[in-house]
Amino acid sequence: MNLAGKRICVTGGGGFLGSFVAEALRERGCREVFIPRRRDYDLTTIQGVQQMFETARPQVLFHLAAVVGGIGANRANPGRFFYENAVMGIQLLEYARRYNVEKTVVVGTVCAYPKFTPVPFREDDLWNGYPEETNAPYGIAKKALLVQCQAYRQQYGMNAIYLLPVNLYGPRDNFDLESSHVIPALIRKFLEAKQAGAGEVTCWGDGSPTREFLYVRDAAEGLLLAAERYDRPEPVNLGSGREISIRELSEMVARECGYEGRIIWDTSKPNGQPRRCLDTSRARSSFGFEARTGLAEGLKATIDWYRSTAKA
Fold first, then answer.
1. Which of 138, 215, 230, 306 is the catalytic position?
2. Is residue 9 within 8 Å of residue 57, measured between CB atoms?
3. Which one of 101, 262, 263, 307 is most buried, counting C-beta atoms within 10 A?
4. Dihedral pair phi/psi, residue 120, rounded to 5°
5. Is 138 an active-site residue?
6. How many domains, the chain?
7. What tens digit of pLDDT does each residue of 48-90 get?
8. Chain Cα centroid distance, residue 288
9. Measured distance CA(100)–CA(123) in Å, rounded
C-alpha cells in the first residue's frame, strides 16, 4: 500500500508514539492525516467513534490510543484500564468495518504475553498462559483486539493487522512519576537527585527483571512498514532484540545522567514480569523491519530532550 494520497486517521496521534507516527506519515508525503483529540472525540463512546469516522472518512486507520501507565498505574486502575482499552478498540474496529476502511493497524502490547513466556517471546506463545498479574487487565483488553482483527478478517475480509511493540522510550515520553514507565521514571529520578545533591535514589523491586526497549522513532517506522507491506492475520512483534536487566539499565541511566550516588532497591515493590525480550524475526521477514537505534544512543537523546524541556 502506498500511504501517500490516502486519508489517514491516527488515534492517539497527539500522544507519545502517535506524534512520531504522524510525523513519519507526513515525511512519506501523506497530506491528509487526521488526529482526533479526546476533548472533541471520546472514543470510549459510540457517539465519539461515529463522529470521528464521519469527520475523518479514513482510508487507513492507525489505532494507537490507549489508557496506559507503569506498574503503579496498572495496580491503581485495573478496572479502568480494562474497560476503556477494550471498549475503545472494539468500537473502533467495528466502525472501521462499517466504513470500509482499506487498512487498519492495531497496536497491541507486550503486556499481553503470559507471565512465564519462554525467552525470546514468539508470537505463537501469546495464548500459552495468563499475563503478569499487575498488568493483566490492560494486556487482556488489548489482546481481545487481536481476536477481533482475526475474526473480522475471516468473516468480512477486513484488512486489519495487529502489532506487538515492546517497551517504548524516547523524547516526548511521559515523565510523571505517578504513571510513567521505567526509563522516563529513572531519568527524572536521577536528574532530580543530581540537582538536589541526594546521596541515593530508590528504585522499585530488586533489579533482577529484564526488559527490552525500542526507541520511539524506530517503532513509528515499524508501524508504517507494516501498514505498507503486511496483510496477514498473525500478530507481529516489534522490538530491538536486546535484553537488559533493570539493575543494569538503572546503572546505565545513572551514568548518562551524571549521577554518582547509590541506587537502593525497594523489594517491597513488585518486580513485574520476570523477563521480557521478543523474537523479532517475523517483522524482519514479513516487512523488513529492524531497529536502528541502540539503547545508549536512544537514552542520550531522551535525556537531552528531557533536560531541554525541564529547563524551559
1. 138
2. no
3. 101
4. -75, 150
5. yes
6. 1
7. 999 999 999 999 999 999 988 777 888 899 999 999 999 999 9
8. 20
9. 28
